[in-house]
Design brief:
The complex is a heterodimer of chains A (402) and B (211).
Chain A: H1 2-11, H2 16-26, H3 48-101, H4 105-108, H5 112-119, H6 124-135, H7 143-161, H8 176-190, H9 207-220, H10 230-240, H11 243-254, H12 257-263, H13 267-284, H14 286-294, H15 300-308, H16 317-330, H17 332-345, H18 347-350, H19 355-363, H20 371-379, E1 384-385, E2 388-389, H21 390-401
Antiparallel strand pairs in A: 1-2
Helix pairs in contact in A: 6-16, 7-9, 8-9, 9-10, 9-11, 10-11, 13-14, 13-21, 16-17, 17-20
Chain B: E1 2-4, E2 23-31, H1 37-46, E3 59-68, E4 71-80, H2 87-91, E5 99-105, H3 109-125, E6 131-137, H4 149-159, E7 162-165, H5 174-198
Parallel strand pairs in B: 2-4, 2-5, 5-6, 6-7
Antiparallel strand pairs in B: 1-3, 3-4
Classes of the chains: A mainly alpha (402), B alpha/beta (211).
InterPro entries (chain B): P-loop_NTPase, Rab, Small_GTP-bd, Small_GTPase
GO molecular function (chain B): GTP binding; GTPase activity
Keywords (chain B): GTP-binding, Lipoprotein, Nucleotide-binding
């Protein structure tokens, strides 16, 4: 707790005290604020020499104040310029994505230029489109299929709420109680998804959409069903895509090997992922790795939450979306690279903590994570271990386990 | 004689809860999804009710310092996800627990019937003689009650558990139940120590520092 407070404070933009000081610096907003008052009549006159000295001091003060003002004005101008530049660059990026990249997706998506632009974050207005394209639709899901799955889900809800006869579905072998519990759980979890945004809660604008997508998925993949954590992934997609497209992206995303391993809680495979992660952990951050080992802090402690929700629960939403951007570009390996980036960013604090404080810290990351530092830290992580890339290390571990 | 570091300063003369604890226990929270495990822990830490908590995925971790009977205790609290799918993940942490808080929701018959399932998990996974606290949460929702207090009491008696009904929303019995748990954990620890002394060559005692 103590650590959390310390770091939390260090990142907060301005403490009240700093604010006061800053105001003092700004005070002589105009040189008219410095008025040379006449000497009160009831006091004896100043000697000429002293009067001269005071006049001189006054003039110096005015000069200083003018200088300060000029500097401030320049600083404000620069800030404005930087903001315009940022807005321009976002505007330009939108144009580049819309006019150059998206129409020529197949040929351009892997080019150096696009990859660089991609790393800087996809502008929110094209984000959904890029995610859709990058995730792909290996499963060939159509909007019609979504409608069919949704209709089936609705039928189930109806029969459950009226307590009617068993609905026959293809998901034989799964007990009615299980299915019921799963549908009930979706209902309960929707309002517990990004509660602070107040849009997925009962009566919120996206409550029904989230309910529909999760329900449709349990009909589309009864063998996977609903697993806690999914509601966060669906919610992030809903924020960036239309309902049916969000469903398509959702189903295809969950169909990726890493997501399948986790959401089906395939222990063996999960352990393989953790082991591969540890290879790169030791390689990149040997000191912290040793500290974690000493404290018996295994990666499952923090990775489970991060991987299951693709960081959408533990990172601020804008940062999580940027992680998703590059995750769509680089695949599962980026999820683990992000984890190492986080550990690297907080290495100094973490090496001073014990088991439970590390666990607590990593499952509740500071809310004011500085985005540039964060991505610089991720960029510094090398996903190569003795000339072996992530996929090779993973493959070796899988075969080693057999 | 109960003070908690989260809720205001300790009165003068009593030990400071946040100093080096005399005793350290690992406590795992289990129970069905949505019975209020995270809310209970939030109430214990911040002494308020937070209606905007997110669903737990995997596990969450907290430390709580308490002073009970003039002794300092540190509880490492492990909050687990309630969904069935996660149970295989939760199970591996049973072994490490000194105490388990098994929670159900008094407004959900279903969550109460699952208590037996959770007990079998504990029996299977935890050390023998682990201290178990059975908690029926949400007493503030009396109108929707589905599980009578007597049923909880009966089940607790049958399995020799400590039993409380509580409310994370109102704060009812939240620290009281934790204090009872702590006292029992301590009795259990003393017994273990005694046993260890009786045996000529004491087996390696489980140290609380890291696991």
């Amino acid at each position: 707790q103590e650590y959390e407070e310390k770091t939390g404070r260090a990142h907060r933009p301005l403490s009240p005290k700093q604010n006061v000081r800053k105001n003092l610096d700004f005070e002589p907003l105009s040189t008219t604020a410095l008025i040379l008052e006449d000497r009160p009549a009831n006091l004896p006159a100043k000697p000429a020499e002293e009067a001269q000295k005071h006049r001189q001091q006054y003039e110096e003060m005015v000069v200083q104040a003018k200088k300060r003002e000029l500097k401030e004005a320049q600083k404000r101008k620069k800030q404005l310029e930087e903001r315009c530049k940022l807005e321009d660059s976002i505007g330009n990026a939108v144009l580049t994505w819309n006019n150059e990249i998206l129409p020529n997706w197949e040929t351009m998506c892997c080019s150096r230029k696009v990859r660089d632009l991609w790393w800087q974050g996809i502008p929110p207005s094209v984000r959904g489109k890029v995610w859709s394209l990058a995730i792909g639709n290996e499963l060939n899901i159509t909007h019609e299929l979504y409608d069919i799955c949704l209709a089936r889900a609705k039928e189930k809800w109806r029969s459950l709420s009226t307590g009617g006869a068993e609905v026959e579905c293809e998901d034989a072998g799964f007990s009615a109680a299980d299915r019921e519990a799963s549908l009930e759980l979706i209902k309960l979890d929707i309002s517990r998804t990004f509660p602070s945004l107040c849009i997925f809660q009962q009566g919120g604008p996206y409550h029904d959409t989230l309910h529909s997508i999760l329900g449709a998925y349990t009909c589309y993949r009864p063998d996977v069903g609903y697993v806690q954590g999914m509601s966060f992934i669906a919610a992030v997609l809903i924020l960036n895509l239309d309902t049916a497209d969000a469903f398509i992206a959702f189903s295809n995303l969950l169909n990726k090997p890493c997501q399948m391993a986790f959401f089906r809680v395939d222990h063996g495979l999960m352990l393989t992922y953790f082991a591969a992660f540890e290879v790169f952990f030791e390689e990149n951050l040997p000191k912290l790795f040793a500290h974690f080992k000493k404290n018996n802090l295994t990666p499952d402690i923090y990775l489970i939450d991060w991987i299951f929700t693709l960081y959408s629960k533990s990172l601020p939403l804008d940062l999580a979306c940027r992680v998703w951007d590059v995750f769509c570009r680089d695949g599962e390996e980026f999820l683990f690279r992000t984890a190492l980036g986080i550990l690297r960013l907080f290495e100094d604090i973490l090496t001073k903590m014990d088991f439970i404080h590390i666990a607590q810290f990593l499952t509740k990351l500071p809310e004011d994570l500085p985005s540039e530092e964060f991505f610089t830290s991720i960029a510094a992580i090398q996903m190569q271990s003795r000339n072996k890339k992530w996929a090779q290390v993973k493959r070796m571990l899988i075969f080693g386990n057999r | 004689a109960v003070t908690a570091d989260g809720a205001g300063a300790a009165p003068r003369g009593s030990p400071d809860a946040s100093l080096d604890p005399d005793h350290l226990y690992n406590v795992l929270f289990v129970g069905d999804s949505h019975v209020g495990k995270t809310s209970f822990l939030y109430r214990l830490q911040a002494d308020t009710f937070n209606p905007h908590l997110t669903a737990t995925v995997g596990l969450d971790y907290q430390v709580k310092h308490l002073v009970v009977d003039n002794r300092r205790f540190a509880l490492r609290l492990w909050d687990s996800a309630g969904q069935e799918r996660y149970r295989s993940i939760t199970k591996q942490f049973f072994r490490k627990a000194d105490g388990v808080v098994l929670m159900y929701d008094i407004t959900s018959e279903y969550s109460f019937s699952d208590v037996r399932y959770w007990l079998s998990c504990i029996q299977e996974g935890a050390e023998e003689g682990v201290t178990i606290l059975l908690l029926g949460n949400k007493t503030d929702c009396a109108a929707e009650r589905q599980v009578p207090t007597e049923e909880g009491e009966r089940l607790a008696k049958e399995h020799q558990l400590i039993f409380f009904e509580c409310s994370a929303a109102s704060g009812h019995n939240v620290s009281e139940s934790m204090v009872s748990l702590i006292r029992l954990l301590q009795v259990h620890e003393d017994e273990l120590k005694k046993k260890a002394e009786e045996i000529p060559k004491p087996p390696q005692k489980k140290k609380g520092c890291c696991w």
